[in-house]
What does this fold into?
Amino acid sequence: MGENQSKLLRDNSKLKKLINECSFCGKKGYKPGILETAHGEYGAGLTVKKYFEELALNNSGVCKACEFILAKNSK
It folds into this structure.
């Protein structure tokens, strides 16, 4: 994770609830659809979008890239 991302989350602990983290690789990104909710108001959405990409996780908390790698390796 970038230094700016770490500092942002460290300095603004309330933003952490807007962020997903892959349980396999540790990549962080904002939750899909979160910017359209009340959490996206008051500039938080714009701040999160500036420093993070959208990151969807499966039911196991794994991002799509890691899910692909895990599926490929399990064959």
About this structure: Residues 3-73 form one domain. The beta strands are 19-21, 28-30.
